[in-house]
Structure formats: structure tokens, C-alpha cells
Amino acid sequence: TGPGQCRIWSKCERSQIHPLDQSPLSFSEFRRTDVVTTPYRLGHALTLHYFLGAIYGTGWALGSLQLLGAPAGLARSVGHGLRSFVTLPYHGIMEGPTGFLLGIVHGSASLMKHVTAGTLSSVNKLAGSWSRTLDRLTLSPDDLRYAEEMRRVKPQGIADGIRQGLTEFGVSLLGGVGGLAQQPLEYATGTQGQSFVGSLGRGLVGVMARPISGAAELVALTAHGILSGAGWADNHIPKHLPVWQGVHHGTESRVKYEHKLVPKNQTLLFVCEATSSEFEPVVLVITSSLLYVLNRDDVIIRQIKLLDIAWSKDKFDPTMVKITVQTPDVVAEKLSQKRITEFVRESQRALNSSTPEESFPQASSFPPTPPSAEQDPLKFYLNPQRRDHFICILDLAARHAANRGFPVLT
Q1: What's 365's DSSP letter?
Q2: Domain count for the chain
Q3: Residues annotated as region Disordered (predicted)?
């Protein structure tokens, strides 16, 4: 394996662990030739190699602790400024006196920018880390959650930073004074399980720690406001927006039905859960030639050929799908009854038009429309987000089974 470099950001909500900020880790190349060994020994050598590389980076990790102000980040920022201060005039002197002067100007500006930004960033991280640590020692879980939510609102300028910092300092000062009476009162009302001495001690610690936490937050917000106003803030912008996907705890499984239900001469196309018209949970399985309806115990309730299916949607209910079974015999019987009825009606109309109306009964003597031989449709209720997908797959599979359209399903 070749050499590698990475930077580590870490943040944990536990008070015992403090965040790291851009801790660099460098791993040397791992090379072995003419290897004759076991997989275990090779894996052990790889693990030991990278573990020692991580151990060697412990110093940078300690220097990246925000509790210490991330001095490694300050050194890295000052190093970038010094490199620009040296390299820019060097490259500029190759182009003449004007380029040399411009190199000095830009190099000095870069040095000042990196030193100032590194110092303010170090102060921001130091003060913010101590403020969070003191809050974890003195605040209740609800107050701590509220404080973390307020810290997510970053100031956009020095004025905004000072305003937010003074607000947090005032709230912390009042909270420290009020906590001196709040903690014993909570003990008296029985809302917390600590003893009276513990409640009083927590209140006394809060009187001293809460103002210090507020002052540290004032310093951190002011420093961040200066960085944001100058455009030096290190705001991490995500490359891609998050995609929110709901977690569906269902029982459907394509692999299960492929091995237990679908024959080898068919292809499983779609599986979804639904509710029948009797409000019983069912599973609908579409294959290349059949539609299976199974109950919760995976017992087949109906097995319908796709050639005999006619579906329809309910325009008032976005979850309902109606499936009508139309076998060739039923279709032929309906067509025959329709033709006989039309023949009788047309014959009576022809007789009525050629014979006086007085000698024939009224038009109500026409034979009534025969009762429909069509069965009641099967009604299923699906997730509205999956109903259209189910209908699309069902229609495509039915056309494919009838050899209509292009053979897109295999």
C-alpha cells in the first residue's frame, strides 16, 4: 500500500471527550516483496504498521485539541503565511523589480492574514471549548440542549458576534445567580435525586462557573464574528445535500419470494405490502406472468394471470387500486350477450318503424340489459408513494405477457 495522509475532525457530546480540529495523520508506505506468509500474519503486519503510524501522530492529535486552543492549527496557519511570505517575493524577483515589490506586498499580506486568522481561530476554539465544558458541568440536560442549539447560530459579523456574546453572557450571569436558589428548590420538590448538600454544591459551582462560561462564549462569538466579517471563517460547505429517506420496517423480501414462491421459468418483478378490502395485511408479488396475493403467513390467497387482469385507480382515494379478473370465457360470454341484446333491440326498432304504433306495445317492452357477469373487483390499499409504481410495473408486465410492445422485461 502507498503512503497516505488524512485530517481528522472529531466531536462528541460526552463531557469526557474533547473535539479534535484537523488533526493530521501521515502513513508511510507499506511494501513487502516475495511474501510467503499466512493471511493472519499479513493482516497482523498491516494492522501494526498503521497502528504505529497513528501512534506517531499522537502529538499532532494533542496539539489539535480545541480544549488547548488547537495550537497545531495555529502553527499550520502561521507556516502557510511564512511560506507565502518567502515564496511570493522569490517568484516575483524572477520577473523584475516590480514583481519583487508585488511579491513582498502580497507575501506580507498573506502572512498577516494567516497569523491573524490563526490566532483568532485558536482563541475561538479555546474559549468555545471551555464554555461547553463548563456548561456540561453546571447545566441540566434540557438547558444544555438549548445552549447547543443556540451555538449553532453563527454570527455573520463583528456586531452580530458582540450582540450574541453579550446576550449569552447576560443569560449565563442570571442563570448562575438563579441556580443558587433553583437547585435547593428542586431538591425540596423532589424533581432531582441528589442530596441537599449536592444540590447546594451544584448551585455554588454554577454561581462561579456560569459567568465564566458566559465570558468565554462572549470571547468565542466575538472572535468568530471577526473571522466571518473578514471572510476568514472556516465554514465547511457540504458537497452534496442530504437525502432524507424513511426507514420502512416491513416484511417484504425479494430474496425470500424468489427462492420460495417464484418458479424458475418466471422472473420476480415487484414486491410490495398492501391492505385488502377486509383490512387484512397482504403482500402483492408481480412476476413475469402471474400476480400473487399472499397473507401474512406467506400463504397464497389468489393467483391471477396477468392476461386476465384489468386495473383501475380511484380518483378520490390515492391509496386504492381496483383489480378486475376477466378470463377469456367471461369476456366471450359478455360479448355474446351484448351482441344478442343489440340484435333484439335493432329488430324491434325496425318493426316499430315499419308498422303503425297502435298495434305494438310501448318501447318499454324492449328486453332489459342483462345483468353483468363481471365479478366484483379486488380492492387493495397501498402506500400512495408506491401505488403508481405498482400500477406501472403491473401494466408493463401485462403487456409483456400479451406480447404487446417492446420486450423490455427479461
Answers
A1: G
A2: 2
A3: 346-377
